[in-house]
Fold each of these.
Amino acid sequence: MCNISSCDVDSKVDQFFQPTLYIIVIILGLPTNCMALWAAYMQVRQRNELGIYLINLSVADLLYILTLPLWIDYFLQHDVWIHGQESCKLFGFIFYTNIYVSIAFLCCISLDRYLAVAYPLRFVKVRRIKTAILVSSTVWIIEIVANSAPLFHDELFQDRFNHTFCFEKYPMQEWVAGMNLYRTFLGFLAPWTAMLVAYRGILAAVRCNISTERQEKAKIKRLALSLILIVLLCFGPYHILLLVRSVMFLRKPCDCSSEETLFAAYHVTLALTSLNCVADPILYCFVNEGARNDVSRALASLMSSACRRRSSSSPSHADILNAGSVTMETPLSTKKQSCVYANSGKTSSYKTELLVMKEECLQMTILGVKK
């Protein structure tokens, strides 16, 4: 048993790098994921099972983004959580569970594309809306249960350097090290390996299919490769350091040197996982042609309606010239006659104009009666 209660960990980048990155993710990720959610819904309306996985991916990303303001505050406070134990558990649970939910749904998308390309007729019944809903529900249940252990433990830890860590302890606890191994191998490596296998199958199927155009083949390859790269670049560095920390702790539980050495790099790689929330909507909105067209139509519609509202609310040049004037309308015409009051000594001319207007009104009324 180790008697060390806390390690001397500190990072000079926490107050700058993480808050800046999270703010960028919020600014970019919130609107793009909302658009992606709408595009995925349009895919579902077209009976495309891929839209179900995309909806779940967008929901997971949006939940993650909603937790970022508190994490920004956490790092600005120099690794001090001031929002209480229960909020730490809840927001930490959402934050970390999103990593594995996102990986799982990216894997589902890869496998779905593999079946669509390699076996377009054999697995038609598998690639249905109902099946996608069942698979998505299973993914959520598995990931929630697998990552729920921290909800039953205290997750606020104070050290002798006035840090109040949320969802992290240095040195880590033994059960956390075991859970990290599970997360690394089953939550990250297993899905990523499945995606590699699916990518290889897609390449083989596309190569053998002579009816598919070269441009379409390149698009399919690009989409499959993008899925693999997102998982590798966003989540790979974090899980490498997570594995190193866990293995070194299990070998030397009382050694703080590795934790102190890896602390800053670990926090940076953890922050980089948030880029997934920006990469996901870009992936299927700008690589998937159908989703891209849906988003383009939505943006065009929004811009058109905004322009109409602006033009209807903005005063015209004539309105500006006639500002402060009193207008009169005839019963059968919408032509406006303005009478501008000024101290120019032309009161008689105004009276004459009023008399003329009254005569016009009378004549129009007579004409209306004759009709």
Amino acid sequence: MLSLFAIETADIVTRILLIVFLGGFLLWSLLRDYRLLNHWEYKIWDMRRGTERKDLEREIDRMKELGEEGWECYAVLK
């Protein structure tokens, strides 16, 4: 009887943790996709967006605004 209760409790806890994890991942994905989270992979994607000189200058200015973190991404692309 006690082991059956423990199994049911573990099942409920597992389901709750799974729902919390999946909900958190979905929320993080949405925030990242709508650029509400500043993520380094999007900074790299922005650098590759333009190939014209004016586009590159604009992105370099943007990297200056981002600070050291942005310049680390720029250095990787060089």
Amino acid sequence: MKANGKRVFSTAFKTWLVEQAGRPGVSVAALAMRHEINANQLRRSMRLDHLVPPARTPAVLPVVMAPQPCGSQLAIATPQPAQRSLPIEIEVAGALLRVHHGTEPEQLRMVLQALRA
């Protein structure tokens, strides 16, 4: 120990400690606590010995801008008929009304008015 209170470790001990910390599954913090040293100092030593990979930067992918299509080149999606339509059930005035695909709105309006009357 130095006069200023700092502890001095041998190079062999530091090398051994860094090797231990670099093993798979070893907790650097627990290892540092066990040997009464600062975990940040141990991690710094590991970085200096290239045992800790540098922090990964996010990958940047190249972006290619395609030319804007003019109005005549735009494809317009046309609605496709449903393969199988299920009826809608409406309960009005105690009656169950089943409305199938293709029912005329005017007919439905008349039936609903009659049921409410």
